[in-house]
Amino acid sequence: MYLIRRLWRRLTSMRTAIVLLFLLALAAVPGSLLPQRPLNPSKVDAYIAGHGAWGRFLDRIGAYDVFGSFWFSAIYLLLFASLIGCLIPRIAVYARALRAKPIKAPRHLDRLAENATLSTALAPADAARRAAADLRPRWRTAVREEAGATTVSAEKGYSREAGNLIFHISLLAALILVAIGKLYSYQGSIVSVEGTSFCNRPISYDTFHSGRLVDTGRLANFCIDDLNSFTASYRADGSPQQFRADVTYSTGVNGPAKRDTITVNHPLRTEGDRVYLISHGYAPTVTVTRPGQAPITDTEAFLGEDQNFTSEGAFSFPGADDKLGSDLGLSGVFAPTAQITAGVVTSVAPTVKDPVLALLAYTGTLNPTGQPQSVYSLNAAAISSGKLKQVAAKNLALGQTMTLPDGTTVRFDGYKQWASLQVSHDPTQVYLLIAAVLMVAGLLGSLAVRRRRLWLRITPGSDQQGTGRSLVAVGGLARSDTGNFSAEFAAVVERLAAALDSTGGPPEVAAASPEPLGAGRD
Amino acid sequence: MAINTGLASLSEGLWTAATGTYMLAVVAYTGEYAFGRNGRIAGTAAAVKHVVNAGATVKQPALVGAGAPIDPPPAPAGPYGAGIVTKRDSDAGRRWGRIAVLLTVLGALLHLACVAIRGIAVDRVPWGNMYEFTLVVGLVATLAWLITLNRMPQLRYLGLFVMMPVLVVMFLAGTLYTKASKLVPALQSYWLAIHVSSVAVAEGILLTSAALTAMYLVRIRFEKGNLRRLTTLGARLPSAASLDKAAYRTVAFAFPIYTAGVIFGAIWAEAAWGRYWGWDPKETWAFIAWVIYAMYLHARATAGWRGRQAAFINLLGFGAMTFNFFVVNIVISGLHSYAGLN
């Protein structure tokens, strides 16, 4: 029990917090220097392949997913525990401090860093009451009777600790909200060609990730009924100016169709879901006519390979079920503004001026193994093993046709644009924003508010001086080191002098003692 | 609206003019530092103080100045000749100092015009790439220095240590130069004005804090009696206590701004990239720097960590911030690849 208490005390100490903060910062460093699986899995694979045993070792200790690794979690959970252990007693102390009276005046006010002496015609008790009333709007005060004197204790800057507590509590809340958000959030992305639609269901998406507590059978009901158009505009120098996707969408089971424009910084926000425009490209259309069969038209999204959208992709036309090896595959390069050098097509502008579709036609078996494969390329293994044989190649301008040896014709009909859309859902975002705002507000309070203590000791005038005036000793103490307390104290003393001056004449300020050595100078 | 190339090249000319003016200001600050009252007298007073400590003389109120040469005492009675030299130096120093401040103000005006005209030329906020951002950070640092001077003119002789880094920042901006251009769609958001400006302001102030901390580290060694080559510079610096306090206050001022800047970034990321936080390298280093500055604030309130330990943490935080700006922007690829250098 003793040991546990000692451990707990050690964990919740400020020193431990500092060390844990340092470890947290240190642990985050590899997260930016090594490729990270959640951001770029293919880069991680390449890194492991390129670094042998070292690469595999890093994989075992979770260095490719630093922010999901056990050691990163361990550090921040310890920090979390340390923070809670530090906060709870401080909240209790603060609650008591709020109810407590400002502490008694020290015996020797003239030994404080800031002190002054005034005199007043008022009796000590009256002067104390008047001074306390004058201070009260900004200071918490208490008037006490001592042997032969009346004292006023005043304190302000309570909101410094309040700000401090609000910041740390909001930080805790934010961390908890992030964790909850992970459990209840989902994200799906889809490549959507102009004129197509999809609904918010896991099966619609090309990729879909969801938190553990997401009921994937009951995602919010909404559909993008039509990607009406995608527009990319460019400046004269070829730099992109604006990307926009015009969509028709509906929410609920039978909601009315609504239209909206999604641009890079403006997602479509439905109830609880956001639809983002992530990237875009071209989708060429071809019509394949096999001898004696009805023509088939297909549009496929091609992936842009450079800034000018030289794009690569593929078309797959399975053959008849009963005729093995009768599949047709087209591997292509699309250039919106083509330049052909030595038969190789590249694009020289991102906009469409002179589109060319370069096609390699293959026949045989498209997918010999039956495993899922990329829609953006033909099966490389099938080509190298000879299951897919190249039978023709041609660069097609718009409307041109190529004819394969078996008489099949392939016509380049045109193109559409596609937009890659991402649907995100995270129910905790709004609350997290509130926590973040509170964090900043708390920080401002804890760093800008100054804690100050002030005491007055008022003693009846002695007849030695013959004035009969009461003596007022004032002392002040700055409890946090921001700001210029000397000037502030002088201003307070001046105000007090005015408040205690009942005669209307100028207050008599006895010589303030010289600033003691070692006093904080600002 | 197209880019106004005439204004763009005017802005480039103003960069040259501002940098040249700052250079002259640094020369003048150096003059004040070399010939100024503060340096010589504080040094002499410190020397006398050692004698006092040895028990030679006792009452000498002017000696307090050794601990706080910000507000130096009149020259202590010394050998006649030395007194004369000090007097002459003091006038020369004051002249140099005035020229330095004038040049700083002129440079800041040219700098401000350079940034503002760049903004007009490209018809957007003038911090859309590393070149522009660096110029803005330099401007914030210079303005922060001028505001400080206005409030505490006695600090003028430290101008060398402030304007030297600013000059370095100006040259850095020159090496990062990017042709005036419009923004890519991802940067077309009002958050560019809010997020980037708050981070630039915070970084400008934290740069000042790092400079103060470096001075503190020199001064504290000097105060502890270490008089080796570099630490003798400490003779002319303000007291360690006041440098420490100033470094703390600047961080206390910048930290909430920086925190808000990161939060603004998260809000923008939510609108632009579909998530408020994704451990992109820029975000990761923003987090690291934030954690280190949080460490600094805690360290300064903890016995055993105050003083030099806290000072090193401050410098570490600034190191993380600088790494985030240069290395992450230029070397590491991520979503924040707006340097405009490729």
Explain what the structure shows.
The complex is a heterodimer of chains A (522) and B (342). In chain A, the strands form 5 sheets. In chain A, strands 4, 6, 10, 11, 12, 20 and 21 form a 7-stranded antiparallel sheet that branches. Chain A has a 6-stranded antiparallel sheet with strand order 2-3-22-23-1-24, covered by helices on one side. Chain A has a 5-stranded antiparallel sheet with strand order 13-14-15-18-19. Chain A has helices at 2-11, 14-33, 41-60, 70-99, 124-135, 158-184, 380-384, 429-448, 485-500, and strands at residues 114-120, 140-146, 149-156, 186-193, 198-199, 207-210, 222-234, 240-251, 258-263, 268-269, 273-289, 296-299, 303-304, 311-317, 327-335, 338-341, 344-347, 356-364, 388-397, 401-403, 409-425, 452-459, 470-478, 509-510. By secondary structure, chain A is α+β, with helices and mostly antiparallel strands. The longest helix of chain A has 30 residues, at 70-99. In chain A, strand 13 and strand 14 (311-317) form a beta hairpin. Chain A is built from 9 helices and 24 strands. Chain B has helices at residues 5-35, 37-53, 64-67, 80-122, 130-151, 159-175, 190-223, 240-273, 281-299, 308-330. Mean pLDDT of chain B is 79; it is low at 39-89. Classes of the chains: A alpha+beta (522), B mainly alpha (342). At the A-B interface, helix 2, strand 8, strand 11 and helix 8 of A face helix 8 and helix 9 of B.
